[in-house]
Amino acid sequence: MSDEIELTGLDGSNPLGFLAALGTLRLLHCASREPDIKMAWNQSGCTWRPTIVAASSLDADTVVSKLFEALGQGDNETARHPFLAIGKNLSISPQEFAEHARSCVGASSAHDRRWADYVSSFGTEVLVHNTLDRIKYTEFCFISGSGHQNYLDTIQKLLGCVKDGHLRETLFNNWTYSDERLSMRWDPTDDRQHAYRWSAPTEEAPLTVWGANLLAAEGSTLYPTVPIADGCPTTGFRRQRRQTDFTWPIWQTPITIEIVRSLIAWAALLQDEVNATLLRHYGVVAVFRSRKIKIGEGANFKWSFAPAEAV
Questions:
Q1: Nearest Cα residue to 168 out of 253, 85, 62, 270
Q2: Helix axis angle, 15-32 relative to 60-71, nearest 10°?
Q3: Potential cystine with 219: which of 19, 46, 106, 256 (Cβ 3.0-4.6 Å)?
Q4: What is the per-residue pLDDT across 214-252, written as a single tens digit (0 to 9) for each?
Q5: In this structure, are residues 26 and 62 in contact, taking their beta carbons and an 8 Å threshold?
Q6: What is the pLDDT of residues 177-191, one digit of tens each?
């Protein structure tokens, strides 16, 4: 006997919504210790919505309560979340990163690999930047100090700000974009270029959805970085013809988080010519791709995702 609940606030064609869905699955898996908790996607009109399937009873209050518990908010975020001890950003030396990685792996356990997943998604000390004494870090790092926006610092502040109401709005309501700043910049709406706006972006406080950004940060840990001979690619990303794309699958059969890990890694290998028959054999019913775009010049620049396209 199983129960299920649809997360009606999440849109699988939005990279932020997709990552938030993964983060929700991951945290519920950690909170409930249910190895069989699963997720699938159902089409609602033109939108793909995730559905969580579990052996125990599920309702909105239960989901929000379990997520809030698993996130472990508190006054001392660094103590509760050892990966935050790295600093505000990932621009650190290989030696520093290796030390922090060892401490995070030590804080993980056979039942909770959360901290180990975080550091494996951040980068690797095996390869360093060509000219700087810092690690090669994840493609998901869209903010690294420009405009006083910092990758790890933003996660830490979100952990301190996000309440159960933010999680409920993210998962079950239409997003109102009423939260100021603290964005990981994974929502295509974060691309606030001057030429496309009525007023200058610098004169407006950027608005976002805090709960979605925090859950998406958890979801990004399912995308580890893997050192290879000529670089340190992030799972899900592909560099080709001077551009970087992020590709993700949508599936309709409920699967566990471990199968999700394998599926998103496999789907990331897809080229432009997608074999629909092969995809459906693996339960994939849609594939989305979003280009990573650079906004600004010189040292004062940020990254963002372009609106996704169905592949």
A1: 62
A2: 80
A3: 19
A4: 999 999 999 999 887 667 789 999 888 789 999 999 999
A5: no
A6: 999 989 999 999 998
